[in-house]
Amino acid sequence: PALYGVLCEKGFFPKEELKTLRKVGALLQGHPDKKKVPGVDVSTGSLGQGISNAAGMALGLKLRKSPANVYTVLGDGELQEGLVWEAAMAAAHYKLSNLVAIVDYNGLQIDGKNEDVMGIAPLEDKFLSFEWNVVKCNGHDFDEIHEAFNKAEKSLDRPTVIIANTTKGKGVSFMEDKAEWHGQAPSEEQRLEAIKSIEG
Fold first, then answer.
1. Which pLDDT tens digit goes with each residue over 94-103?
2. Which of 36, 77, 151, 165 has the fewest CB atoms found within 10 Å of its own CB?
């Protein structure tokens, strides 16, 4: 949903389209489809594809001597996939300093707590051992996020991971730190309550 919100704000499709999210036959499904959604470069679905595609794009840009950077966002539960670590190893090998991965590190995934499904800690040490630059920040603090991106762009010889420590559903009491809200839509009453909570 966040990707679709950004694409909408950038004018790729009308705001009314957002109301069709995940409806049968609608443009905006749970996983973006590059053949249907304007502004989407890569269709994804299986976990780990995003960082793998991003590493390939970053390598292509580097070979063309392009100054562009590639950014990819990963959920922390996604880091349980071997494909993520293959991509991380390749990105370090090719010294893809133009690649920045942002990990939404909230400790929860669709099946529950990460540590109960398959632990990923110590995350910082894992990325350091794969020869990545590691930057940590509070994923709810825009100043810290901005500073993390500034640090990432200074990396000259290796990819960077920004570990953004977050709380799932932050600011909405009935959603906060609850795994069941990973893929569940609120009722109309809950939606209004959530908006009220966020707006204060």
1. 999 999 999 9
2. 36
